[in-house]
Amino acid sequence: MKLTMNSVAASSQRTKTFEKRIAGPEGTCEATSVAQPCVIFRFEDHAIPRVDTPAKHTAIKDLVGSWSKNEERRAALEQARKWVADSFHGGDGDTVRTLRLRKGWSQARLAADLGTSQSHVARIERGTENLSIETCRRLCVALGINMNTLDEALRRQESLAASKAT
């Protein structure tokens, strides 16, 4: 059998026929395979076309990062986060998200204090992350709260997540 591929994205070539004798408890039986056409998939025919980023595009995280370097804009961002905490999450009570936003911090800023990633902070805020005691201690120090307040905040955000899921 010749092992060649027409495309790196295509599946394998058709297989050849073979005969095989199998010995079982009742004697020898014969099994024969017949070659059947192999379906070849070209994955590039089904791939989602990639959309190129516009030439003058700036990602939001890059824009916010550059604004954070400017003292005046950083203060405005912190004020905006505090406003979001009160305007959109004020009825939620104390959760990790509202405690972070009331400090005017981004998820990236809290992640830097915790020594973790922004996505980890997002999972904590969604209530989908089981936290170690060490992470809880670091959260308490970063947010300036005690363990009881953190426990209440985590329970509150779990119940909020459960109510949104239903």
From TrEMBL:
SMART domains: HTH_XRE
Secretion signal span: none
PROSITE patterns hit by this protein: HTH_CROC1
InterPro entries documented for this protein: Cro/C1-type_HTH, Lambda_DNA-bd_dom_sf
Pfam family, one: HTH_3
A GO molecular-function annotation: DNA binding
Superkingdom assignment: Bacteria
Domain HTH cro/C1-type: 96-150
Name the UniProt record assigns to this protein: Helix-turn-helix domain-containing protein
Native source species: Candidatus Accumulibacter meliphilus
